[in-house]
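User: Assemble these into one structure.

Assistant: Restating your components, then the assembled model:
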Amino acid sequence: MFENTLFFLSATLTIVGAAGVVFSKNLMHACVLLLGSLFGIAGLYATIGADFLAASQLVIYAGGVVILMLFAVMLTGGSADSSNKFGIEKIPGMGSTKTYVIAGFSVLVISFTILKLMANFMKSYKAGELPAFSSTVEEIGTLLVTDHVLAFEISSILLLGALVGAAVIARPRKG
Amino acid sequence: MISLSSYLFISFTLFIAGIAVMIARKNIIAMMLGIELILNSAALNFAAYSRFVNNNLEGHLMSLFIIVIAAAEAAVGLAIVIRFFQIKETIHIDDAAQLQS
């Protein structure tokens, strides 16, 4: 019961946040709605028993990426003039009735095809009982330094390269 | 009642939202928000499959690597955006039309 409640709350938060990112005119509002959507995804991770994943999603996205996005929005002039230049209905070809009718039919056809293809596959995986809660942190740590040690080291080198690259690219230059 | 297809549906919605943002927005930072949505939908798929199909932790590791890559991508992308804004005084995607100014 608690699991169902958490699932529906998180799913609602995720989908509403994503729709808000699509339809919000103000870029700052879009960033904050993206934060809500990422919180919802962390809740979904919690419902499938991935506690370490939920925690790192919260720490890295809420504490890192969204703050970085907000800094970039503010450094580049914020949401000024965003309503008439960046709104979804100002794009040519988006907003006329014909576009929406064609897009609706395309969505129907494509989704029926995909669902038909995936029907057997989806039916064959009913929700098993969630095993008794046990922390996944220890197993993930063990896997990271035994089976996946190469990917782990490569990702650390990637992060170092991203750090140095970001500092080099964004530094102020003379002239 | 919560099954694999619930998670697949949420992931599909997130992916469609990200694609719509990337197509409709002309602001580079807004397009990067769409990229974050798409990466998150992929990570959610990995975690859901590893919960419902094979009960091991490989999917969690893949989601962790996706989160790491998304963080690196956001850092470098925003640095490029800020540099572009210093040069061109705009972050409209149609103004990024030449390789060398």
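Residues 1-80 of chain A form a domain with the Four Helix Bundle (Hemerythrin (Met), subunit A) fold (CATH 1.20.120.1200).
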